[in-house]
UniProtKB/TrEMBL annotation:
UniProt entry tagged with the keyword Hydrolase: no
Family, as annotated: Belongs to the multi antimicrobial extrusion (MATE) (TC 2.A.66.1) family.
A GO CC annotation given for this chain: membrane
Species: Salix purpurea (Purple osier willow)
Protein name: PROTEIN DETOXIFICATION 31
Transmembrane regions listed in the UniProt entry: 39-62, 112-131, 143-162
Length: 194
């Protein structure tokens, strides 16, 4: 598992994209630019997917060599080679999911994202992993498949939430939140400066 965490953290850019797209979407919605918010989410999601695919491809192509960086134990090397396709799938999905989560947070859906995370990971993914790993005797691979399945379901739910979104309506809701919480719009500021 240490090799997995070390390798997966080489792809930590997904956390940066999460924060960047969250800010970008919230700013664009607050500025009443729903088309730009939607375009930004497409770019961030595709960029995350492409980065994940490149890293996954590199892992699969180097699976006979990169375990040497972490261990000299032949059994561990063989297990890493066997689990590399699962690691590659994990890298891809762990690049896309944070981008989608960032979009949802930027749109102001923090509570919904929290429920999706809890439901998919803690109520579905982890129990599935425990069943596969211990009850069905699949070991580490079963635990990993269960947790990855939870993340895949979470990604699917976020895709569905984002796909059904009316971005013009979200921009209007953002404008309403700005008014409610005392934010000034640009036209008022420009009038007061003149």
């Amino acid at each position: 598992m240490l090799i997995y965490f070390s390798t997966n953290h080489l792809a930590l850019q997904h956390q940066h994209i999460n924060a960047a797209i969250s800010v970008r979407v919230s700013n664009e919605l607050g500025a009443a630019h729903p088309r730009t918010a939607r375009f930004s989410l497409v770019v961030a999601t595709l960029a995350s997917l492409l980065i994940g695919l490149v890293i996954a491809l590199a892992l699969v192509l180097a699976r006979n060599h990169y375990p040497d960086l972490f261990t000299n134990d032949a059994r561990v090397k063989e297990l890493v080679k066997e689990l590399t396709p699962l690691l590659a799938a994990c890298v891809i999905i762990n690049n896309v999911q944070p981008a989608l989560s960032g979009v949802a947070i930027g749109a102001g859906w923090q509570a919904a994202v929290a429920y999706v995370n809890i439901g998919c990971d803690y109520i579905f993914g982890i129990p599935l992993g425990l069943i596969l790993g211990y009850k069905l005797q699949m070991g580490v691979q079963g635990i990993w498949i269960g947790m990855l399945t939870g993340t895949v379901v979470q990604t699917g739910v976020l895709f569905w939430m984002i796909g059904k979104t009316n971005w013009s309506k979200e921009a209007s809701a953002a404008e309403e939140r700005i008014r409610k919480w005392g934010g000034d719009d640009d036209s008022k500021n420009k009038k007061s400066e003149q």
